[in-house]
Design a protein that fits this description.
alpha+beta; 39 strands; six-stranded mixed β-sheet; ATPase_NBD; Ppx/GppA phosphatase domain-containing protein
């Protein structure tokens, strides 16, 4: 049977009597067309490729037009056809443009009819082409033919790209159309399909009628059709489709009556000349306003977070403009929390939040730029688990100090992990919230962090962010050998005292890379990443062996958190340190007075709190106890058994865990936790402290200095030999400006020492209810100090005050005399205020003598540089400055004694002594002797003198005798100046100052009185008063500072302001001179050879009256000092004025005075022949043992 090739299936056409090609008598007329089957019906899945064989370049546009024509008569099909799917795709694209027309995911390119046809027609003919026409010209002709009818007015259309893949374009027939290759191109580019604002995946093989779409989108389409219907072809499929839906629909669509197109924004293409996305000229497409989307989500979502602070609202873009971000949603992947999400859509518990949506808020990402997960192109802020919880843990080498830092553990359980909270949490919540909502569950195998975030829906409820860190996964946990210390540890909230919130933070980095970075933030500054510090400071000490590198951050205002960060194996690790500072919120009322006795060897700080009840309490040494801790470490103090002293909690190795190297670093370079002499404290650090600083080798001017380059040398008497240490101790700060005048770093050293004292003072006041504005600070200086030196020290005090307090108003520039101050305290120790008294304040570098002639209301003082260091020091170098030599007779004698009596087991004190004796340390003999006295029970330094070489005591007896001799001559010279008014010897002779402690080696108190009376008898005819007494206080160094405090607060101090500072020049009484105190210049005296000879003869007379006096010699003999004549001969020689140990000493000691020829005389010359001579005598005795 023949087969008829035809496209219809009309049964009236007979398939007979046909052979070959037989023409029909009629065409496809009448109802034969109805019998042509549509092979695409019920083939919805083929919609993407439909129409690809239609012989027209614009076939796709006509296909969509036809689809609308067909679907309008079957709006609710039992089974969607391909045409329903095409209509759905067109509506999907319109909805996507409406939701996200301005999104960076969508980009546009304009096709211009005139430009493109002109370009195609300009192609030259090809010789081998049919009719020699270029194919492009053929295409141009086809386009021109196709654009004669419905597309006649089309001058441009716009191609639409989604994330770089061609999605579709605009159409004058249906507004838009989709590309048949969209799905393939999407897959090739590995793109997730876009979603609607309700979370529906767009461009699927399904039919979604308009009535099932977002109400706002339906409203927009209705208004667009109403306003621009005239610009659409009258008989286009879309026109008929929308006309039926909106005007002839038995099922009215949901439309918001109050909205117009003015409630939406025309879509911008960002293309020059075509700034608005238009279908045809005058017919723009619109998108929803961002504010409307934000308002709708904020007003209706059940997952809007309930922040307790609004710092997140301060978010700004890179240009500093506020983003006006809304309260974010709180969402977690696959969270099983019911509630309305966006629009009328509930949250889908299967929703996963991809990392691509989480721009890093900590690295500049903006919350306002985020788009909600599970839906597409809904730009609304949200936060998720990764925003608040870190991906990795940082484990410290010790337990964290949960008494002072928030750890997040239940009931403050022990923890060695930094908080895995991201700092961005505090853009929304407070530390109090974190305490309530964070739970860290720590086991041997894992750490689970659970953070509850309050959201609004259905009353207040919570979304849980949770992360589990498996401890057996190496990359999940980083062991970080780092320690931290904070100084101070309080926070002032009083508005006008914010300038006092200044901190130094130590970061000790034991990592090999030393890449650990600390950033300090206030909660309010986190949102825009404004750290209070920038970058990492230079290391104070580099990492050497197991010793960590040290870095000191200076934070000049209050901060709330520290972010620790580093990269390891290209993995970023972060953790939060949350100090719980002592909060000072009320202005103090206590009135503090501090006195600083800035001594040559030691410095003491005493203070007194004004008693409102009229009592007269004694001054106290400055202390730091657990009640007012100033420096707090991140590691937890030991709290186990076996602790009897507070300091042990902060120093035992177990408190530092696996990072024991931190403890000596803190002692050396930072501030000890506790300071004080109370046995319960048990700390090795107490005032008086050594006047020394610890400085980095290669110290230079410029930049920050305190702690970063040098610090108060708290640890000097605990120092031990350390390989590779790049720091050293510098002592005798008081006289640096004179002893080393050309050293430009002296001001830095002195200022750093002063600043540290003032910081301790400031913190003491603040933490003990003190009113900073009522605080008074005074200092002491000897009258023998030159005006130039005193002025330079005063300048450094003022700079330090400005740095620490922000003002110099609390500081008294003019120092209190070291000779005057002790008297005010000694009156409380038994000195009768009506009796004549002399106080001798013996320091390390100067001695200050004050005479109180109460009967005559006459007070005078003098000062001279003859003190303890002239006993224990290394003599003078060729410039007349302290030499630092270690061959002092006392040191040599001890080293011999130590060698003959070796210790069975070395202690820490022994190691410290070894460090002091190491030449690389450049320590002074004064430092060594100070250490030996401090640990005398262990070293038996005193015993080594008394048992092995008691003859060395003659140096001490002569030192004391020289002061008594000069006192007698001073009194007698004052009598002459007062016109013959008799001055009696003092009833009370008191000694203060750390240097006076050597008097305890001269016998008992009765022995000293006896010796002094014998000296008086040898030196003067004046009678010794009945009941003559010598007072030695238990803590002589403290007496001066205590007295200064009492002087400053005394009501009767005015009578002492007129005390006369004077000097007896040291000449023989029979050879008077006319020098005037503080007027005669050094240059004038330099030419007075007779005067210099007279001084030497006067010293010879002193030695003769002492060493050749039978009474005195007998006394000395009782203490094993037999060869006094030998010592006399050694010192005086054959010609005291030309060739003697005294003469050589005199010539050396004069050099510093003569350095400034214009300087005014301010001290006696009497002691100059003895300064180096006593050192030589000690060597002589040690070498020639008897």
């Amino acid at each position: 049977m023949p087969h008829i090739l035809r496209i219809d299936n009309d049964p009236n056409v007979v398939e007979q009597n046909h052979l070959g090609w037989t023409g029909g008598t009629v065409g496809l007329v009448g109802n034969r067309i109805e019998h042509i089957p549509d092979t695409l019906l019920n083939q919805a899945g083929l919609a993407a490729k439909a129409g690809t064989s239609i012989p027209s370049p614009f076939a796709r546009l006509y296909l969509f037009d036809a689809a609308f024509r067909l679907v309008m008569n079957d709006l609710r099909p039992a089974q969607p056809t391909m045409y329903h799917v095409l209509v759905s795709h067109c509506l999907d694209l319109l909805e996507l443009l409406f939701q996200a027309g301005g999104s960076p995911d969508l980009t546009y390119r304009v096709w211009s009819r005139a430009d493109r046809l002109s370009a195609l027609n300009q192609k030259a003919p090809l010789p081998n082409a049919p009719n020699r026409r270029h194919p492009h010209r053929v295409l141009a002709k086809a386009l021109e033919l196709d654009m004669r009818h419905d597309l006649a007015n089309l001058q441009t259309f716009t191609l639409i790209y989604y994330k770089g893949a061609l999605l579709g374009g605009t159409s004058p027939l249906t507004l838009v159309f989709t590309s048949p290759n969209w799905e393939q191109e999407r897959q090739n580019k590995f793109l997730d399909p876009p979603k609607s604002s309700t979370g529906r995946v767009l461009f699927q093989q399904e039919y979604v009628p308009l009535e099932s779409r977002d109400r706002t989108f339906v409203t927009y389409l209705s208004r667009l059709f109403e306003q621009y219907k005239s610009l659409l072809p009258e008989n286009s499929g879309l026109t008929k489709f929308l006309d039926k839906l909106f005007r002839d629909n038995p099922y009215p669509l949901p439309v918001d009556g109050g909205k117009t197109l003015n409630d939406f924004n025309p879509i911008s293409t960002n293309i020059e000349g075509f700034s608005t996305l238009q279908v045809v000229t005058g017919l723009p497409l619109y998108s929803v306003r961002a504010d409307d989307v934000l308002r709708e989500v904020e007003g209706n979502s059940d997952f809007v977070m309930l922040p307790t602070v609004g710092y997140y609202k301060e978010e700004t873009n890179k240009n500093g403009v506020k983003t006006n971000v809304r309260p974010p949603l709180a969402l977690a992947s696959r969270m099983d929390v019911r509630g309305r999400y966006v629009k009328n859509t509930d949250w889908d518990s299967r929703t996963v939040i991809p990392s691509s949506l989480l721009n890093d808020l900590g690295a500049g990402g903006l919350l306002a730029d985020r788009r909600l997960p599970g839906v597409d192109n809904v730009q609304y802020p949200f936060v998720s688990t990764d925003d608040f919880l870190e991906d990795f843990l940082i484990r410290m080498p010790f337990k964290i100090n949960n008494e002072r830092f928030f750890t997040g553990t239940v009931n403050r359980a022990d923890c060695d992990f930094l908080l895995p909270i991201r700092k961005e949490y505090f853009n929304f919540f407070t530390l109090a919230d974190l305490r309530n909502y964070l739970v860290l569950d720590i086991s041997d195998l894992r750490v689970t962090a659970t953070l509850k975030v309050p959201v609004r829906g259905q009353g207040v409820r919570f979304v849980e962010f949770r992360k589990t860190y498996e401890l057996n996964e190496p990359e999940k946990v980083l062991d970080l050998p780092v320690g931290m210390g904070f100084f101070p540890f309080y926070r002032l909230t009083i508005p006008d005292q914010q300038a006092l919130n200044k901190y130094t933070v130590l970061l000790a980095d034991g990592t090999t890379s030393q890449a650990t970075q600390a950033s300090f933030y206030r909660f309010s500054d986190v949102v825009n990443r404004h750290a209070l510090t920038s970058g990492k400071p230079q290391p104070r000490s580099p990492k050497v062996g197991e010793r960590p590198a040290s870095y000191y951050y200076k934070v000049n205002e209050a901060f709330d958190l520290v972010e620790i960060q580093l990269a390891h194996n290209d993995i970023p690790y972060r953790g939060i340190v949350m100090p719980e500072f002592t909060t000072v919120s009320n202005r103090g009322y206590e009135e503090f007075t501090f006195a600083i006795d800035f001594g040559t060897s030691n410095t003491h700080v005493a203070y007194l709190v004004k008693d409102q009840g009229g009592a007269k309490p004694d001054p106290e040494p400055l202390t730091v106890t657990e009640e007012d801790l100033q420096m707090v470490l991140l590691n937890k103090p030991y709290s186990g058994p076996g602790i009897s002293r507070d300091y042990d909690r902060y120093s035992v190795k177990s408190s530092f865990g696996a990072f024991e190297q931190l403890e000596p670093l803190v002692r050396r370079e930072f501030v000890p936790p506790l300071i004080g002499r109370n046995p319960r404290l048990g700390t090795p650090f107490a005032f008086p402290l050594r006047t020394t600083i610890y400085e980095r080798e290669g110290l230079t001017q410029g930049g920050d200095y305190l702690f970063t380059k040098l610090n108060l040398g708290f640890n000097i008497d605990l120092e031990q030999v350390t390989v590779g240490d790049n720091n050293r101790y510098v002592s005798t700060l008081k006289w640096l400006f004179e002893n080393k005048p050309n050293d430009t770093l002296n001001d830095l050293r002195v200022r750093a020492f002063f600043e540290t004292l003032l910081l301790l003072i400031r913190h003491k006041v603040v933490q003990n209810k003190g009113d900073v504005a009522l605080t008074k600070i005074v200092w002491l200086a000897p009258s023998s100090m030159t005006r130039r030196t005193r002025n330079r020290l005063t300048a450094e005090w003022n700079k330090a005050m400005q740095e620490v307090f922000g003002t110099t108003a609390y500081f008294q520039d003019e120092p209190i005399l070291e000779s005057l101050a002790p008297y005010f305290y000694l009156q409380r120790q038994g000195v009768l205020p009506t009796a004549n008294a002399v106080n001798v304040d013996i320091g390390g570098g100067t001695s200050d003598l004050m005479f109180f002639a109460q009967g005559q209301r006459h007070y005078f003082n003098t000062s001279f540089r003859f003190a303890a260091n002239d006993i224990w020091g290394g003599g003078l170098d060729e410039t007349g400055a302290p030499s630092g030599r270690m061959d002092n007779g006392f040191v040599s004698n001890f080293l011999t004694y130590r060698s003959n009596n070796p210790s069975s087991q070395k202690t820490g004190a022994d190691q410290t002594l070894d460090a002091f004796l190491d030449p690389k340390r450049r320590m002074s003999p004064e430092d060594v002797v100070s250490l030996l006295f401090k640990y005398d029970d262990h070293f038996q330094f005193t015993k080594a003198i008394q048992n092995q070489q008691p003859a060395l005591l003659i140096v001490l007896y002569l030192h004391y005798a020289a002061i008594i001799y000069h006192l007698v001559q001073l009194i007698e010279s004052q009598e002459k100046q007062e016109g013959g008014t008799a001055l009696e010897l003092p009833r009370f002779l008191t000694f203060t100052g750390r240097g006076s402690q050597y008097l305890n080696l001269l016998g008992t108190r009765a022995d000293l009185v006896d010796y002094t009376k014998r000296l008086f008898a040898a030196y003067t005819t004046k009678p010794v008063p009945t009941n003559f007494q010598i007072l030695l206080t238990d803590n002589p160094k403290e007496t001066t500072a205590n007295g200064a405090v009492l002087y400053q607060t005394a009501t009767d101090r005015d009578q002492y302001r007129g005390n006369q500072t004077t000097a007896y020049w040291g000449n023989e009484p029979t050879h008077p001179v006319t020098f005037t105190y503080n007027e005669t210049t050094v240059d004038t005296v330099g030419h007075e050879n007779d005067f210099h000879d007279s001084v030497l003869r006067n010293v010879r007379d002193f030695l003769e009256k002492t060493l050749k006096n039978n009474s005195v010699s007998a006394f000395l003999g009782d203490f094993g000092i037999r060869r006094t004549q030998d010592y006399y001969d050694f010192l005086v020689g054959s010609d005291v004025t030309r060739s003697s140990v005294l003469h050589d000493s005199y010539m050396l000691a004069k050099l510093p005075l003569e350095r400034d020829a214009d300087a005014r005389l301010a001290e006696t010359f009497f002691f100059l022949p003895l300064k180096n001579a006593l050192y030589e005598l000690s060597k002589y005795i040690a070498k020639n043992q008897s």
